[in-house]
Structures are given as structure tokens and as C-alpha cells.
Design goal:
Strand content: 15-25%
CATH superfamily: Alpha/Beta hydrolase fold, catalytic domain
Largest sheet: 6 strands, parallel
Number of helices: 6
Number of domains: 1
Helix content: 25-40%
CATH architecture: 3-Layer(aba) Sandwich
Structural class: alpha/beta
CATH topology: Rossmann fold
Strand order of the largest sheet: 2-1-3-4-5-6
Length: 205
């Protein structure tokens, strides 16, 4: 087992109430097998690989997401936790997952940092996209501070996919949270994320 500090990253996904909505999503999805554009979610593990073990969890059926399946898969990684500091990071539905999981389950160790990037907690955006069994009691997410004092939330006022009031709900329910608000990042579909990288790098100083 590695002695490096560790990052566990949970990416986004989609949950649908009806199969027809899932099929419609697949029909509307614009696939480009030649897409070579850089994404911060791809680049960050490469940038940090010398300093961290970076576990980028590929959740089962992320485009027909099921919380129970995600929970089972997430917990498979816990046996690989070492005694070094750990950072948890959740983007979009991945942030939703971390909020629910950490409010309902004991995490086996204290965590150095938690990063919630545009988490989805309220069904007010699109009719087809649902929380389904990712729903949870928002009043319990303050339990996150029991395992981590350094919780960060990242969101943008122009996010059309996960409206900013989702993050504002999280902010109201976690007393100790560091807010990073932008006006021009949309749903963080960007090549680089230097602000996030800076905060992570400061954690090892």
C-alpha cells in the first residue's frame, strides 16, 4: 500500500425516474469519439500524481445512477485508505453522493479536506433529472464537520445544469464551510481548475 496522501474523487452522473427519460437522454447526448479537449477532471490526477494517490472512482451505471450501487462500489475503496491524510472530492452528482453518504454513515478516519463542486440536492432544474434514491435529509449534513473541519463548496451563479440555489442550501446546512463562488464557470466544463488545485496543494504545506 502506498504511503502517499490520498484523494478520492467521485464524478457526476444522472438518475431518472422512468426508463423512457433515460432513453431520451441517450438519444439527445452528443457523442464525439474524437473529442481530445482537456478537462480538469482528466488533468488533475496527472498534475497531482507525484504528491497523491488519486482514486478516480468510476461508478457503475453513472448515466442511470443508483445510490445503493454507488455506495457498494465506494466502500470497496475504503480498505485501501492508509494512515496519511485523505481528501474527498465530489463533482455534481458525486457531490450529492458524498453529502448523503457522509451524513448517513461513519467514515473510518478524519479527512483533511472535502470539496463539493456544484452538488445537486434539489429537484428544480429539469423535469427528467431526478434525485431518486440519492435524496437525503439535508439537516444532517452538518455531521460532515465531525470528520473534517476544512469543507469547501465550489459553484457558479451561471450554472444552468445545477442551479446555484443547490449550493446555497448546502451552505446553510454546514456551519463550517469555505465558499468559492464564481459568476462565469457554468457547470465547471473547463480545461483547468487552478483555484481548486491551489487549495489542494496548500493542504500539504
Amino acid at each position: 500500500m502506498s504511503n502517499k496522501k490520498q484523494i478520492i474523487y467521485v464524478g457526476g452522473g444522472n438518475a431518472f425516474e422512468k426508463k423512457e427519460d433515460f432513453y431520451e437522454y441517450l438519444k439527445e447526448y452528443e457523442l464525439d469519439p474524437y473529442d481530445k479537449n482537456k478537462r480538469w477532471t482528466r488533468e488533475l490526477p496527472v498534475i497531482l500524481e507525484d504528491k497523491f494517490d488519486y482514486f478516480k472512482i468510476e461508478m457503475p451505471s453513472k448515466d442511470e445512477a443508483d445510490y445503493i450501487a454507488w455506495k457498494i462500489w465506494f466502500e470497496k475503496y475504503l480498505k485501501f485508505l492508509n494512515d496519511k491524510e485523505t481528501i474527498l472530492m465530489g463533482y455534481s452528482q458525486g457531490g450529492t453522493f458524498l453529502l448523503k453518504y457522509l451524513s448517513e454513515n461513519l467514515f473510518p478516519k478524519r479527512v483533511k479536506q472535502i470539496h463539493l463542486i456544484a452538488p445537486f440536492v434539489k429537484e428544480n432544474n429539469f423535469e427528467k433529472y431526478k434525485l431518486m434514491n440519492f435524496k437525503f435529509d439535508l439537516s444532517k449534513i452538518n455531521r460532515i464537520n465531525e470528520i473534517c473541519d476544512d469543507v469547501h463548496i465550489w459553484y457558479s451563479s451561471d450554472d444552468f445544469l445545477v442551479l446555484p440555489d443547490n449550493s446555497e442550501i448546502v451552505i446553510k446546512n454546514i456551519p463550517k464551510i469555505v465558499i468559492h463562488k464564481f459568476d462565469d464557470r457554468n457547470h465547471f466544463f473547463q480545461e483547468a481548475f487552478p483555484e481548486l488545485l491551489e487549495v489542494i496543494n496548500k493542504s500539504i504545506l
